[in-house]
Amino acid sequence: MSHYWLIIKQWFNQTFSTPLFNIGEEEISIVWILQAIMLLILVSIFARGIKRFLKNYLLVLLRINEGTREVMGTLSGLGLGTLGYIIVLQGLGLDLASFAVVVGGLGVGIGFGLQEITKNLVSGLTLLGESKLKVGDLIEFQGHLGYIQEISLRSTVIKTFQGSQLVVPNTDLTSQPVENWNYENCHGRIEISIGVAYNSDLLLVTELLLESAFLEKEVLASPSPKVVFIEYGDNALIFELWVWVANIERRQFIKSSLNFIIEYKFRQGGICIPFPQRELWLNNVESFPSTNFKTTFNKPSVSHLITLKDSLKSFPCFQHLNELELRKLIEVGSRHYLKKDETFIHKGEYGSHFCIVLSGQIQAIYETKKVSRLLFTFKQGDYFGELPLLLEIPYPTTMIASQDTHLFLLAKPCFQTLLNQYPYLAQEIASELAKRQESLQEYQESLKEMGLIDDESLKNPVAWIRERLSQIFSL
To answer: Does residue 279 carry a pLDDT above 80?
Structure first.
């Protein structure tokens, strides 16, 4: 048995230890090659572990941004790996100086063959270093929309909304335009183009488009939605609705929802969306059988809906505005919907809007520890919030919707601009407030407790309000 073992051992030594060829003075055998492979694998594992440790732990503790962590980790891994390979080969007795001439000669040919890879490597380091594109960013590249899943030295992986992974060479990302929706935040603008018939009420179109935008919960109030009159088309007047959203990656769903809302609102408001039409000329009509060629086009049914334009025109303070001025007013205002028994604002809170009741009712409840009573009811056509807004005091009452209510709100800057452009509005508002003596007394008591009004001002509240309007808005 031992004899066979010796024979196998000799055969093994002769097979694996016998030099296959020489590199310089070093004899290369199968054992030498296996040792080199194992050591190089260990160096690679060590270098990759160092990269992950720096990228995911040490540099995170030092609060270094993700792009810089990727660059530092990658370069450290490459540097340690290269140094380890050199040490391993030198330790195995291989004289790397003898390779200098050979490598130099092959370098030119290798350089030409691998120039694209080299470009991608440099581009990868550029992407990682500049951090213009980062892992997790939502980007659009050559018609593909998706999130950056990985940035490596040679390529970048984009996970599309279809669920596939798009592998893009880094050179393409650095040499071609890339739309980054996450550069500062994920906010973005959605544009919806729509055509209306030439005989449409353009102010009503603007109103319905803006109302549709405010009905979509994912549309941001700031920047406010805009309606843009694009052009006179062949068959229609072309408008665009611009809305801003916080999550642009949901733009297809939001756009679909807005299209449904717009179609419903146009149908309710009697706005016709035309389709292309062509005229057909017929010769020798007399030869045709008697036929009624009249065509009846179905028009959308117009409901007796009170529009925002009509509602605003019914207010004394807005009766002097023409359609263009009303359009600006509608654009800067916002809509607010309240369900029955929903609280609009609590007593003691500061208001930031001038509020007009378009439909429904708002009750002003005066509450103390001992008393809770109804002070005012604001119905369709009434407005409130001017005193807290103008006098910069908190609401003395709790405002609750006694039924489903639709409000039109003007923020303080918009209200200030309106008063500056139309000074007579301040006089009408002050005169209207004089009719609310009980409400004014509650405000005056609140102001007196806060030390903002004296007994002399209580004698003529209307004159005092006008004076405050002039002070606040420089009228």
So the answer is: no
Is domain 132-180 annotated with CATH 2.60.40.1510?
no
**Residue 180 φ then ψ, to 5°:** -105, 110
Give yes or no for residue 294 having a pLDDT over 50. Answer: no
Contact 473, 416 (CB under 8 A): yes
Average pLDDT, the chain: 76
Q: Has residue 18 got a pLDDT over 50? A: yes
Tens digits of residue pLDDT in 308-365 = 777 777 776 677 777 767 777 887 788 888 999 999 998 888 888 888 888 899 998 8
Buried/exposed code over 197-233 (b: 16+ C-beta within 10 A; e: otherwise): eeebbbbbbbbbbbbbbbbbeebeeeebbbbeeeeee
Pick the CATH number of 312-473 from 2.60.120.260, 1.20.1600.10, 3.40.50.300, 2.60.120.10: 2.60.120.10
Domains 132-180 and 188-287 share a fold: no
State mean pLDDT over 110-129.
71
Residues 262, 273: contact at Cβ < 8 Å?
Answer: no
Q: What is the pLDDT of residues 219-273, one digit of tens each?
A: 988 888 999 999 998 889 999 999 999 888 788 889 988 999 999 889 888 899 8
